[in-house]
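Re: the request from the purification team.
They wanted to know what the chain is likely to look like in 3D before they choose a buffer screen. I agreed to run a prediction and write the result into the notebook, where they can find it.
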Amino acid sequence: MNNKPIGVFDSGLGGLTAVKEIINVLPNEDIIYFGDTARVPYGSRSSETIIKYAKQDISFLKSFDIKIILAACGTVSSVALPEIPCDKVRVVGVVEPAAIAAVKATKNKKIAVLGTKGTIDSKAYETEIKKLMPDAKITSIACPMFVHLVENGYSEHEATYLIAKEYLKQVIDNGADTVILGCTHYPMLKKVISKVLGENVSLIDVGKAAANYLKEILDTENKLSELKKPSYEFYVSDAKGGFEDLAKLFLKRDLGALKSVDIDKIKED
């Protein structure tokens, strides 16, 4: 057994959807979450900047004697993790778990990937899906406005529905029966996306897939915690007030003490 905490980070609020799933799947684990709200979103940044930010985020979490870190960010998982050596603490992303779940779910081998521009440009999901299902037909769509809509509380607004209809037209035209929500913000848009695509299309929640993946790793490595009353700590790099209000919607629970971090002062490991 290993009672050290699990570290989770994202560019903002979206990673809390992964935290929610980790709490459900691994209820005995301490969790430390960092949301880089001062620099959200990552999806439109250059590869060099995303890698720099990810290294700082990982260094911050390593300061807590973490046993494993989840990059709960599709952009970081796609763009940065392949470029970051993980020697002391294992860092996993959301791409591989989601690809595995999508391949298991699809019946017609037509899979769509929704993500930020950085995620889609990286082709990371396409590469991972093709490893598992070489004959899969993949539709990849950048949805840059989705993160802003979620972060500003417009998850179920009519404007979001209209934007989703525009983004998802290609998914419908190409007949995909499975859609990867390739950003941890996107599960907050499930109702809108399902309304546009219909109930017969399977939506792959990357946070849920990643939580199951973490459980598998920790179980295999005999690192599951046996804590009866786990603790959850939340850190942000900006705007605590706004984060707290929306975070309650994401997690369906109070955050407790929320702490601020000057991430620019964190040196890359």
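For the purification team: Strands lie at 6-10, 31-35, 68-71, 90-92, 110-115, 137-142, 178-181, 202-205, 232-236, 258-260.
Please add any questions underneath this entry.
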